[in-house]
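Kindly inspect this chain:
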Amino acid sequence: PLPPTPLFWAERGAVLVSCALSCVGSVLLLCSQALWPELRTRPRQLLLYLSVSDLLSALSYSYGVLRDFQRSSWDCVLQGALSTFANTSSFFWTMAIALYLYLSIVRGSPTGSGLLWGFHAVSWGVPLAITVAAVALRKIGYDASNVSVGWCWVNLDAEDRLLWMLLTGKVWEMLAYVTLPVLYILIRKHINRAHAALSEYRPILPGAPALQPRSSIADKKLILIPIIFIFLRIWSTVRFILTLCNSPAVQNPVLVVLH
């Protein structure tokens, strides 16, 4: 097995800054929802739940980095359980938002309270069940920062650690890499087809010329969503694969910071 990954203060500082920015963004979104009821649309509600997950992740990661775990302990397990639940929930809510947009824009399907409750059941329930099982079976613990950056996750001493690494995050992460681009590409194609159909009536619609730049901006934003998600998440997947291969590159400072 690989030796523990040393964490320098510069790396810890970068992680803490990232966590602080995540906390600020999540709190601002929570406050805007509380202060302005007119902003409480269904898509923003879903984004709110995603922000709650990200806030919990950032807080748990911050504690892990500051605590500097050297072995499994009760607070290591607690922090690992919280980050596992929040991080897995974040993946589910991210995919839920993409699925909601696909159903409402492309399929035109009704997106009432039933769908929202389904999202709640899956995005909170599945991560909770996985986390409870992992804690009960003592799979959460010290991971030597080889698949994290200071915080606890799946105990590297567990014989079936690969299975639990997948269940507690990586399989959902990889699923999101495929699902998000597919859904957003389908949404973009639908918008382009609708815009092409509308352009046939452009000569008789005085406001139609303004639709082209707006459509282009929307297309760019749709493309950026999966690209940004993959760019931010891919580094943890890279370190996960390197850890499985027992590669010393997992301790590369650049990868550690990007993780």
Summary: The first helix runs from residue 9 to 35. The two ends are 20 Å apart (CA to CA).
